[in-house]
C-alpha cells in the first residue's frame, strides 16, 4: 500500500504517528490523539525537541479526545500541545493527578477504571480503560505520589467490531503488561512508546521507556498481531532508534508484527 498522509479525513480504523509520542487513532470514526507535542524544535533544559511535528495540530481537523499518559514531562505534553489540548479538544482522558493539575476538560481515571465515548460513526460507544504503567525501573525513585518518576497511564480502547487497542504510554516495565494481558486477552494492536528514553539525573540513567527487547517482550506477552512504535524519534532523550527496535523484534522472531511507517503517514489504515 502506498503511504497515505494523515489529514482531517476520518476513518473507521487507522493509526499513525505524528511525531514523538503523538499518535492519531481513528476508532469508529472517532479521532483520538495521544500525548500532544506540537512545538517546533526547542530546548527545555533537561531535554530538547529536535524535530517539528510531521502534521500540525490544525492539520488533524477536529479531534474528539486526547489520551494523555501524563502531563508533567515536556516530551509528552509540550507548550503548544498543552495549549491545544486544553482549548481545542472537548475531552482529555488521563490519570487522576494530571486531571487535577489540568482541570477541565481533563477526566482522571484511576487504574482499571473506564469511561465511554460515543462513536462518531453512530455505531455505539467506545470504552476507554486506564491501564497501569511504570515510568522507569521497578526499583526506581518514587515521586511524592508514590509513582516511579511520575504517575503514568496507559489505555485500552474497545468497541464492537473494531480491533482492541493498547496504548502503552511511558511504560518501561513488563510487570504491568502481564496484568493487562490477563484482563484483556483479546488485544489486537499495540501502540508502544519505545526509544529507551534516558536522563542521567534519573534512576542512574536507566531506561524510562521501553527498550527494543522489552517492547518485543510486551508484544509477545500481549499476543498482538500488529505493533505501531512511537516515542522513538524527535527528542534528545532517546538512546535507541527504530532500527534498534526492529532488530529486537527480528531477534525475537516477531519482526512481521511491526507496522510503523514514517511520521505523518498512517501505519494502519
Automatic annotation (TrEMBL):
InterPro entries in alphabetical order: Metallo-B-lactamas (IPR001279), RibonucZ/Hydroxyglut_hydro (IPR036866), UPF0173_UPF0282_UlaG_hydrolase (IPR050114)
Start and end residues of each Metallo-beta-lactamase domain: 30-232
Pfam family, one: Lactamase_B_2
Alphabetical UniProt keywords: Hydrolase
Gene Ontology molecular-function annotations: hydrolase activity
The UniProt record lists the keyword Hydrolase: yes
SUPFAM superfamilies in alphabetical order: Metallo-hydrolase/oxidoreductase
Keyword Disulfide bond carried by entry: no
Name of the featured protein: Metallo-beta-lactamase domain-containing protein
Organism: Mycolicibacterium litorale
Amino acid at each position: 500500500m502506498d503511504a497515505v498522509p494523515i489529514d482531517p479525513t476520518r476513518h473507521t480504523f487507522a493509526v499513525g504517528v505524528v511525531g514523538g509520542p503523538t499518535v492519531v487513532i481513528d476508532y469508529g470514526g472517532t479521532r483520538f490523539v495521544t500525548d500532544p507535542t506540537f512545538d517546533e524544535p526547542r530546548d527545555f533544559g533537561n531535554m530538547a525537541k529536535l524535530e517539528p511535528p510531521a502534521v500540525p495540530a490544525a492539520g488533524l481537523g477536529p479531534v474528539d479526545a486526547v489520551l494523555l499518559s501524563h502531563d508533567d514531562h515536556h516530551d509528552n505534553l509540550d507548550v503548544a500541545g498543552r495549549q491545544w489540548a486544553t482549548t481545542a479538544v472537548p475531552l482529555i482522558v488521563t490519570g487522576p493527578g494530571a486531571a487535577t493539575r489540568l482541570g477541565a476538560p481533563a477526566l482522571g481515571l484511576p487504574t482499571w477504571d473506564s469511561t465511554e465515548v460515543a462513536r462518531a460513526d453512530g455505531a455505539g460507544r467506545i470504552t476507554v480503560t486506564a491501564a497501569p504503567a511504570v515510568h522507569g525501573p521497578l526499583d526506581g525513585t518514587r515521586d511524592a505520589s508514590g509513582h516511579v518518576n511520575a504517575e503514568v497511564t496507559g489505555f485500552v480502547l474497545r468497541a464492537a467490531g473494531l480491533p482492541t487497542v493498547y496504548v502503552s504510554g511511558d511504560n518501561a516495565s513488563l510487570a504491568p503488561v502481564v496484568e493487562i494481558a490477563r484482563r484483556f486477552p483479546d488485544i489486537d494492536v499495540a501502540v508502544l512508546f519505545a526509544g529507551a528514553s534516558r536522563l542521567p539525573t534519573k534512576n542512574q540513567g536507566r531506561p524510562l521507556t521501553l527498550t527494543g527487547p522489552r517492547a518485543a517482550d510486551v508484544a509477545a506477552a500481549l499476543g498482538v498481531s500488529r505493533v505501531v512504535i512511537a516515542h522513538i524519534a524527535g527528542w534528545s532523550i532517546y538512546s535507541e532508534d527504530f532500527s534498534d527496535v526492529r532488530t529486537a523484534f527480528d531477534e525475537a522472531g516477531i519482526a512481521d508484527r511491526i507496522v510503523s511507517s514514517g511520521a505523518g503517514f498512517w501505519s494502519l489504515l
